[in-house]
UniProtKB/TrEMBL annotation:
It comes from the Bacteria. Keywords: Amino-acid biosynthesis, Lyase, Metal-binding, Methionine biosynthesis, Zinc. Its cofactor is Zn(2+). InterPro entries: Aldolase_II/adducin_N (IPR001303), Aldolase_II/adducin_N_sf (IPR036409), MethylthioRu-1-P_deHdtase_MtnB (IPR017714). Coiled coil: none annotated. Catalyzes the dehydration of methylthioribulose-1-phosphate (MTRu-1-P) into 2,3-diketo-5-methylthiopentyl-1-phosphate (DK-MTP-1-P). One of its GO terms (biological process) is monosaccharide metabolic process. Belongs to the aldolase class II family. MtnB subfamily. Zn(2+) binds at residues 103, 105. Pathway: Amino-acid biosynthesis; L-methionine biosynthesis via salvage pathway; L-methionine from S-methyl-5-thio-alpha-D-ribose 1-phosphate: step 2/6. PANTHER family: METHYLTHIORIBULOSE-1-PHOSPHATE DEHYDRATASE. One of its GO terms (cellular component) is cytoplasm. This is Methylthioribulose-1-phosphate dehydratase.
Length: 216
């Protein structure tokens, strides 16, 4: 498939997932950004400030790994790339197998990231962990880095750099949201859905005062 056809397909797919994520209440008030890899140089990405429940293909543009809007094969590029573009392109460069990146502001991810005191969330004991690539058992350890929020995205990307280990599939930004990636949008969405539930489990344990008995 040539680049233009692939872009058109992925732009439709990103709009489709935008509607699902908005309807799940994970992308309120123009928050969130989504992308899908086009090839080894470019990805299709949401433009900045769009309502994610009402995305159309005109709200999707192409960026290179430096985060610049480009128009290979004359693909039209309207709007401005997401403010968090560099967090997406960092993932594509670090993980050649990553085909899609979804960032949302789900209530469970935002609240847990704000409450969790440590720099990483270590999960074990949950069957749903197996929805995350590389997790084969409820006894596996799922480590999710948590970084402080920063309006300076290049600086945040720099801080994330040493945390993006080969087995990592997601991270939390404190009080802001979650990033996760996968081979394609469907895999990525599965990660996001599982992680949202896992965050909800942890929040409920905190609420019930049960954390100690669940520490790995
Ligand atoms: C209104 S939420 C603040 C920005 C943000 O965190 C986000 O995810 C959306 O930014 P974008 O530039 O991609 O619209
Ligand atoms: Zn955000």
């Amino acid at each position: 498939m040539n680049l233009t056809l692939r872009f058109q397909q992925l732009a439709e797919d990103l709009c489709h997932y935008g509607r699902i994520l908005y309807n799940n209440d994970w992308s309120p008030a123009t928050s969130s950004n989504y992308s899908a890899r086009l090839d080894d140089q470019y990805c299709a990405l949401t433009s900045s400030g769009k309502h994610k429940g009402e995305l159309t293909p005109a709200d999707i543009l192409v960026v290179d790994w430096q985060g610049r809007a480009v128009n290979p094969e004359g693909i039209s590029n309207r709007g401005k790339p997401s403010a968090e573009t560099l967090l997406h392109t960092q993932i594509y460069q670090r993980y050649p197998q990553a085909g899609a990146v979804l960032h949302t502001h789900s209530r469970n991810a935002v609240l847990l990231s704000a409450l969790w005191p440590q720099a990483e969330l270590e999960l074990t004991g949950w069957e749903l962990q197996k929805a995350i690539e590389g997790q084969n058992s409820h006894e596996s350890r799922l480590v999710i880095p948590i970084v402080d929020n920063d309006q300076n995205i290049p600086r945040m990307a720099e801080g994330l750099d040493p945390l993006l280990l080969p087995e990592c599939r997601a991270y939390l930004i404190r009080g802001h949201g979650i990033y996760t990636w996968g081979h394609n949008l469907a895999d990525c969405f599965r990660h996001l859905e599982a992680l949202d539930h896992l965050c909800a489990y942890q929040l409920e344990l905190i609420r019930l005062g049960q954390m100690e008995s669940r520490q790995p």
